[in-house]
Amino acid sequence: MATTLPFTGGSSMGHKIGTERHCRCHNKRKALLGAGATFASDSSCYMLQQMQQEVPSSFSSFSSSSSPPSPQHCLLPLTHLDTAAQCGSETSAEVEENHEVRLEIIPTMRSIVVFYMCYLLCLGLGVACVACVCVWNSQWRGGFAWDGSALQFNWHPVLMVTGLVVVYGMGAVLYRIPLTWGENKLPWKILHAVLMLAALILSILGLCAVFDFHNAKSIPNLYSLHSWIGIATAALFATQWVVGVAGFLLPCSPVSLRKLLKPAHVWMGGIIMLLSIAACISGINEKLFFSLKGNTNGSLPYSSSPPEALYANSLGVLIVAFGLIVLKILSNQQWQHPDSRQQSTVYTPLLHEEN
């Protein structure tokens, strides 16, 4: 039923009084409902004031006529005013919705900026790790060779830090880069697989260097905790790469297998990163204990904190910092690939990808 306003007099003064009453009622409602009803209340008052200027000419004739107005003219329909108030409420809701959308966009852009800051820091720490391990083995350990001597052993820390830590970490965070979130994922899948394969090859070469050295010097293999962690990490890494290629790149892999493997693949990637850091830290410590004994060659013992010990310990700190940044990037859900946040993603095998 349309809301009506009674006509209180023969002139327009009664209509103004009714208008003021209606505005006061809306002002009380505005105080009770709060800021959410402000726009709707103001719209109703505004429309009522506009109605003063749009009163039919019959109202003007009532003021000059001696006869009383008819009952049909004593009621002012306000149906369109209620409609205007509803339209004002919808407009207010749209404004609030647009404001919420803008608030959602701002943190997203901020998150992308933070990601690139972390990514550049990760890249810088990775380069620093590779440079420091090369300087350590060339400056204090005599350089490199592949002849079964101690110089061949120097390849072991360089290859393991470069492959199992730095290249592996950069390949792990590849899918977190926003530039890889396009529709064509094939190049990034191939790049991810190539980086992981390169890290695996470098790790295998590092293991060959230390095994050849031990065999040439008749030193037992795999007797220390460092060697156990290292060989376990390399074995898990090789298994991870083979299963990843078979489950995510081969066209014959079913969607159900991919959905089953994906959480385990991501989780195992972080575990391998942690084991790699543990293997490198224990290896650096073990090398310093074996080399810095304070023997007849003039070297100071490890407990005296010689420059080589300080330098190698600093290398360990860089490796830990690099690993923590990688794990931070991998654990942040806002930086995950959009397909990883959607449960209904349709998977297309490698050979069926759009170019």
TrEMBL record:
Residue intervals of the Cytochrome b561 domain: 121-331
Protein's membrane topology: Multi-pass membrane protein
EC code(s) of this entry: 7.2.1.3
Catalytic activity: Fe(3+)(out) + L-ascorbate(in) = monodehydro-L-ascorbate radical(in) + Fe(2+)(out) + H(+)
Keywords, sorted A to Z: Electron transport, Endosome, Glycoprotein, Heme, Iron, Lysosome, Membrane, Metal-binding, Oxidoreductase, Translocase, Transmembrane, Transmembrane helix, Transport
InterPro entries, sorted: CYB561/CYBRD1-like (IPR043205), Cyt_b561/ferric_Rdtase_TM (IPR006593)
Cellular localization per UniProt: Late endosome membrane; Lysosome membrane
Cofactor dependence: heme b
GO terms for cellular component: late endosome membrane; lysosomal membrane
GO MF annotations in UniProt: metal ion binding; transmembrane ascorbate ferrireductase activity
DNA repair listed as a keyword: no
Sequence intervals crossing the membrane: 112-138, 158-178, 190-213, 225-252, 264-284, 310-331
Subunit relationships: Homodimer.
Described function: Transmembrane reductase that uses ascorbate as an electron donor in the cytoplasm and transfers electrons across membranes to reduce iron cations Fe(3+) into Fe(2+) in the lumen of the late endosome and lysosome. Reduced iron can then be extruded from the late endosome and lysosome to the cytoplasm by divalent metal-specific transporters. It is therefore most probably involved in endosomal and lysosomal cellular iron homeostasis.
Name of protein: Lysosomal membrane ascorbate-dependent ferrireductase CYB561A3
